[in-house]
Protein backbone atom coordinates (compact mmCIF):
# COMPACT_ATOMS: atom_id res chain seq x y z
CA UNK A 1 0.00 0.00 0.00
CA UNK A 2 2.78 2.41 0.91
CA UNK A 3 4.54 1.67 -2.37
CA UNK A 4 1.35 2.26 -4.33
CA UNK A 5 0.78 5.66 -2.73
CA UNK A 6 4.40 6.60 -3.46
CA UNK A 7 3.68 5.93 -7.15
CA UNK A 8 0.41 7.87 -6.94
CA UNK A 9 2.39 10.80 -5.52
CA UNK A 10 4.42 10.96 -8.72
CA UNK A 11 1.23 11.28 -10.80
CA UNK A 12 -0.52 13.59 -8.29
CA UNK A 13 -4.10 13.21 -9.56
CA UNK A 14 -6.68 15.82 -8.51
CA UNK A 15 -8.77 13.20 -6.72
CA UNK A 16 -8.44 9.60 -5.56
CA UNK A 17 -10.96 6.83 -4.88
CA UNK A 18 -9.57 4.28 -2.42
CA UNK A 19 -12.12 1.47 -2.21
CA UNK A 20 -12.17 -1.45 0.16
CA UNK A 21 -11.77 -4.79 -1.58
CA UNK A 22 -15.08 -6.67 -1.79
CA UNK A 23 -14.79 -10.45 -1.63
CA UNK A 24 -17.95 -11.63 -3.40
CA UNK A 25 -17.08 -14.92 -5.15
CA UNK A 26 -20.80 -15.56 -5.65
CA UNK A 27 -20.81 -12.89 -8.35
CA UNK A 28 -17.08 -12.78 -9.21
CA UNK A 29 -16.02 -16.35 -10.16
CA UNK A 30 -12.36 -15.36 -10.44
CA UNK A 31 -12.34 -14.73 -6.67
CA UNK A 32 -13.06 -18.40 -5.92
CA UNK A 33 -9.34 -19.19 -6.07
CA UNK A 34 -8.95 -17.86 -2.53
CA UNK A 35 -11.12 -17.38 0.52
CA UNK A 36 -11.62 -14.98 3.40
CA UNK A 37 -8.82 -16.67 5.36
CA UNK A 38 -6.35 -15.48 2.69
CA UNK A 39 -7.36 -11.84 3.15
CA UNK A 40 -6.59 -9.20 5.80
CA UNK A 41 -9.02 -9.09 8.72
CA UNK A 42 -11.11 -6.02 9.58
CA UNK A 43 -8.50 -4.53 11.98
CA UNK A 44 -5.70 -5.20 9.49
CA UNK A 45 -7.68 -3.59 6.67
CA UNK A 46 -8.37 -0.59 8.86
CA UNK A 47 -4.65 -0.30 9.67
CA UNK A 48 -3.88 -0.27 5.94
CA UNK A 49 -6.49 2.44 5.44
CA UNK A 50 -4.97 4.55 8.23
CA UNK A 51 -1.54 4.15 6.64
CA UNK A 52 -2.84 5.38 3.29
CA UNK A 53 -4.81 8.17 4.98
CA UNK A 54 -1.68 9.51 6.70
CA UNK A 55 0.38 9.36 3.51
CA UNK A 56 -2.30 11.08 1.43
CA UNK A 57 -2.78 13.83 4.01
CA UNK A 58 0.98 14.39 4.03
CA UNK A 59 0.74 14.87 0.27
CA UNK A 60 -1.92 17.56 0.70
CA UNK A 61 -5.02 15.49 -0.02
CA UNK A 62 -8.18 16.11 1.97
CA UNK A 63 -10.54 13.36 3.14
CA UNK A 64 -13.90 13.79 1.37
CA UNK A 65 -15.26 10.84 3.33
CA UNK A 66 -16.21 7.27 2.50
CA UNK A 67 -13.08 6.35 0.48
CA UNK A 68 -12.53 9.55 -1.53
CA UNK A 69 -9.73 12.12 -1.34
CA UNK A 70 -9.12 15.33 -3.28
CA UNK A 71 -6.71 18.24 -3.48
CA UNK A 72 -8.04 21.49 -1.96
CA UNK A 73 -8.39 23.17 -5.36
CA UNK A 74 -10.34 20.28 -6.88
CA UNK A 75 -14.05 20.65 -7.66
CA UNK A 76 -14.87 17.63 -5.47
CA UNK A 77 -13.54 19.29 -2.33
CA UNK A 78 -15.18 22.60 -3.23
CA UNK A 79 -18.50 20.78 -3.70
CA UNK A 80 -18.15 19.26 -0.24
CA UNK A 81 -17.50 22.67 1.31
CA UNK A 82 -20.51 24.26 -0.41
CA UNK A 83 -22.91 21.39 0.29
CA UNK A 84 -23.17 20.39 -3.39
CA UNK A 85 -21.52 16.99 -3.05
CA UNK A 86 -23.37 14.08 -4.66
CA UNK A 87 -22.77 10.33 -4.83
CA UNK A 88 -23.63 7.88 -7.58
CA UNK A 89 -22.58 4.31 -8.44
CA UNK A 90 -19.06 5.44 -9.28
CA UNK A 91 -18.55 7.37 -6.06
CA UNK A 92 -18.60 11.03 -5.06
CA UNK A 93 -19.05 13.68 -7.72
CA UNK A 94 -19.51 17.48 -7.75
CA UNK A 95 -22.27 17.06 -10.34
CA UNK A 96 -25.82 16.11 -9.39
CA UNK A 97 -27.97 14.53 -12.06
CA UNK A 98 -31.19 12.53 -12.03
CA UNK A 99 -29.99 10.39 -14.95
CA UNK A 100 -26.84 8.27 -15.00
CA UNK A 101 -26.39 5.96 -18.00
CA UNK A 102 -24.17 2.86 -17.80
CA UNK A 103 -22.42 2.09 -21.10
CA UNK A 104 -20.65 -1.24 -20.60
CA UNK A 105 -21.19 -4.81 -19.50
CA UNK A 106 -22.46 -5.09 -15.91
CA UNK A 107 -22.80 -1.31 -15.49
CA UNK A 108 -25.82 0.14 -13.72
CA UNK A 109 -27.98 3.04 -14.86
CA UNK A 110 -29.85 5.29 -12.44
CA UNK A 111 -32.98 6.86 -13.90
CA UNK A 112 -33.97 8.45 -10.55
CA UNK A 113 -37.12 6.32 -10.29
CA UNK A 114 -35.48 3.05 -11.36
CA UNK A 115 -32.21 1.13 -11.55
CA UNK A 116 -31.21 -0.94 -14.58
CA UNK A 117 -28.24 -3.27 -14.90
CA UNK A 118 -26.66 -4.28 -18.21
CA UNK A 119 -25.81 -7.87 -19.10
CA UNK A 120 -22.90 -8.98 -16.92
CA UNK A 121 -20.74 -10.74 -19.52
CA UNK A 122 -19.15 -9.00 -22.48
CA UNK A 123 -20.53 -11.64 -24.85
CA UNK A 124 -24.15 -11.22 -23.73
CA UNK A 125 -23.79 -7.44 -23.69
CA UNK A 126 -22.41 -7.35 -27.25
CA UNK A 127 -25.13 -9.73 -28.46
CA UNK A 128 -27.85 -7.55 -26.97
CA UNK A 129 -26.45 -4.38 -28.53
CA UNK A 130 -25.99 -6.12 -31.90
CA UNK A 131 -29.64 -7.15 -31.79
CA UNK A 132 -30.67 -3.53 -31.31
CA UNK A 133 -31.66 -3.96 -27.67
CA UNK A 134 -30.60 -2.13 -24.51
CA UNK A 135 -28.75 -5.25 -23.28
CA UNK A 136 -30.42 -4.98 -19.86
CA UNK A 137 -30.51 -8.05 -17.64
CA UNK A 138 -32.53 -6.74 -14.67
CA UNK A 139 -33.94 -3.65 -13.02
CA UNK A 140 -35.80 -2.27 -10.05
CA UNK A 141 -38.58 0.31 -10.01
CA UNK A 142 -38.30 2.40 -6.86
CA UNK A 143 -41.35 2.70 -4.64
CA UNK A 144 -42.20 6.00 -2.92
CA UNK A 145 -40.61 4.54 0.23
CA UNK A 146 -37.47 3.57 -1.72
CA UNK A 147 -37.14 7.14 -2.98
CA UNK A 148 -37.35 8.55 0.55
CA UNK A 149 -34.74 6.08 1.79
CA UNK A 150 -32.50 6.99 -1.15
CA UNK A 151 -32.85 10.67 -0.33
CA UNK A 152 -32.06 10.05 3.34
CA UNK A 153 -28.99 7.91 2.58
CA UNK A 154 -27.62 10.55 0.21
CA UNK A 155 -27.99 13.15 2.97
CA UNK A 156 -25.90 11.00 5.29
CA UNK A 157 -23.11 10.13 2.85
CA UNK A 158 -22.91 13.57 1.20
CA UNK A 159 -23.70 15.99 4.03
CA UNK A 160 -22.94 13.87 7.07
CA UNK A 161 -26.31 14.49 8.64
CA UNK A 162 -29.99 13.61 8.46
CA UNK A 163 -32.73 15.89 9.73
CA UNK A 164 -35.76 14.60 11.62
CA UNK A 165 -38.52 15.64 9.25
CA UNK A 166 -42.00 14.20 8.87
CA UNK A 167 -41.44 12.50 5.50
CA UNK A 168 -38.62 10.30 6.88
CA UNK A 169 -40.12 9.72 10.33
CA UNK A 170 -40.86 6.10 9.40
CA UNK A 171 -37.09 5.44 9.21
CA UNK A 172 -36.67 6.01 12.95
CA UNK A 173 -38.35 2.94 14.36
CA UNK A 174 -37.58 1.50 17.81
CA UNK A 175 -34.78 -0.77 16.52
CA UNK A 176 -33.10 2.03 14.59
CA UNK A 177 -33.29 4.48 17.49
CA UNK A 178 -31.65 1.93 19.81
CA UNK A 179 -28.83 1.38 17.29
CA UNK A 180 -28.37 5.14 16.91
CA UNK A 181 -28.02 5.55 20.67
CA UNK A 182 -25.38 2.80 20.70
CA UNK A 183 -23.47 4.52 17.88
CA UNK A 184 -23.64 7.81 19.77
CA UNK A 185 -22.06 6.12 22.80
CA UNK A 186 -19.30 4.85 20.49
CA UNK A 187 -18.67 8.39 19.24
CA UNK A 188 -19.77 7.73 15.65
CA UNK A 189 -22.60 10.29 15.63
CA UNK A 190 -24.42 12.81 17.77
CA UNK A 191 -28.18 12.90 18.27
CA UNK A 192 -29.99 16.24 18.45
CA UNK A 193 -33.71 17.02 18.78
CA UNK A 194 -33.99 17.59 15.03
CA UNK A 195 -30.81 16.07 13.59
CA UNK A 196 -28.52 13.05 13.37
CA UNK A 197 -24.97 14.24 12.73
CA UNK A 198 -22.00 12.06 11.80
CA UNK A 199 -18.81 12.80 13.77
CA UNK A 200 -15.30 12.88 12.24
CA UNK A 201 -14.74 9.38 13.69
CA UNK A 202 -18.08 8.25 12.29
CA UNK A 203 -17.08 9.23 8.74
CA UNK A 204 -14.97 6.09 8.60
CA UNK A 205 -18.04 4.03 9.48
CA UNK A 206 -20.66 5.92 7.50
CA UNK A 207 -21.62 2.71 5.67
CA UNK A 208 -22.61 1.17 8.99
CA UNK A 209 -24.70 4.22 9.83
CA UNK A 210 -26.45 4.05 6.47
CA UNK A 211 -27.26 0.37 6.99
CA UNK A 212 -29.57 1.35 9.85
CA UNK A 213 -31.86 3.02 7.33
CA UNK A 214 -31.49 0.47 4.51
CA UNK A 215 -34.43 -1.92 4.50
CA UNK A 216 -32.82 -4.13 1.84
CA UNK A 217 -29.90 -4.86 4.16
CA UNK A 218 -32.26 -5.64 7.03
CA UNK A 219 -34.24 -8.03 4.84
CA UNK A 220 -31.05 -9.76 3.70
CA UNK A 221 -29.33 -10.29 7.06
CA UNK A 222 -28.96 -14.03 6.51
CA UNK A 223 -27.36 -13.47 3.11
CA UNK A 224 -25.34 -10.43 4.14
CA UNK A 225 -21.94 -12.13 4.24
CA UNK A 226 -22.25 -13.31 0.66
CA UNK A 227 -24.44 -10.61 -0.87
CA UNK A 228 -22.89 -7.35 0.26
CA UNK A 229 -19.31 -6.10 0.57
CA UNK A 230 -18.09 -5.41 4.11
CA UNK A 231 -17.98 -1.91 5.57
CA UNK A 232 -14.40 -2.38 6.79
Short description:
The protein has 232 residues and is of the alpha+beta class. The protein has nine helices and eleven strands. A hairpin with a 2-residue loop joins strand 2 and strand 3.
How would you describe this protein?
The chain has about 230 residues and is of the alpha+beta class. It folds into three domains: about 1-85, no CATH class; about 110-140, no CATH class; about 145-225, Arc Repressor Mutant, subunit A (Orthogonal Bundle), CATH 1.10.10.920. It is built from nine helices and eleven strands. The strands form four sheets. Strands 1-3-2 form a three-stranded antiparallel sheet, with helices on both faces. Strand 10 (about 190) and strand 11 (about 195-200) form a beta hairpin. The protein starts with a helix and ends in a 5-residue tail after the last helix.
Any descriptors?
three-stranded antiparallel sheet; 232 residues; alpha+beta
Amino acid sequence: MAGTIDKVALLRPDRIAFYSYAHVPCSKPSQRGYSEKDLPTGPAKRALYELVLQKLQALGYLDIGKDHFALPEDALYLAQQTGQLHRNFLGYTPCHTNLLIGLRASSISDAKYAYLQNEKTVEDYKAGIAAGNLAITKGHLLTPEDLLRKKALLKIVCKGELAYIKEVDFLFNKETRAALLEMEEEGLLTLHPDLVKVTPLGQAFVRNICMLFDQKVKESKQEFSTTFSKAI
